[in-house]
Specification:
- The chain is an all-alpha fold.
- The protein has helices spanning about 25-30, 35-55.
- The longest helix is centred in the middle third of the chain and has 21 residues, at about 35-55.
- The radius of gyration is 16 Å and the shape is elongated.
- It starts with about 25 loop residues before the first helix and ends in a 17-residue tail after the last helix.
- About 0% of the residues are buried.
């Protein structure tokens, strides 16, 4: 998208979208040292990446805070 300066739409017959987050990560990470935080997040991403590779899933990264409705 950066190279083209526009998004190219794809048509797909079937799609599943997964948004994931770690509930309470702010509180948990405030009680951990920096190295432990990096190790924990790295382990989480590695697990997701392994599953993505095994199942030939396309991964789109988004980083930011998401607050579910009703919270």
């Amino acid at each position: 998208m950066k190279a083209k300066e526009f998004a190219q739409a794809k048509r797909t017959a079937l799609v599943t979208v997964l948004f994931t987050g770690i509930i309470g990560i702010t509180v948990v990470s405030s009680q951990m040292c920096g190295g432990d935080q990096v190790d924990e997040i790295s382990a989480c991403f590695s697990t997701f990446d392994c599953s993505i590779q095994v199942h030939s899933i396309e991964k789109i990264n988004m980083i930011g805070d998401f607050v579910p409705a009703g919270r």
